[in-house]
Amino acid sequence: MADNDTSIKPKTVTKPKLERPKLYKVILVNDDYTPREFVIMVLKAVFHMSEETGYRMMMTAHKMGVCVIVVCARDIAESKAKEATDLGKEAGFPLMFMTEPEE
Description:
three-stranded antiparallel β-sheet; 3 helices; single chain; CATH 3.30.1390.10; alpha+beta
């Protein structure tokens, strides 16, 4: 047994540092043609907002030109923006939601 020159070294365990996924903003863009009630209905249906919150978001977009609706992961943001914009198109309104990376 003296001929066995095996040395035992502890394994170093390295944990990979995971980066958080980049967040994206879903932005409501104001237009002068889509009825306010329809915008609130879309906000309630797609983003699960209350009537009051939907009204406040819609009014913010109306006064400022745009309003950030939600900040979430990219795939969720893009699918929500597309779903909401498509509802406007189906109803014949130029309602538009866009996404952009959060800074």
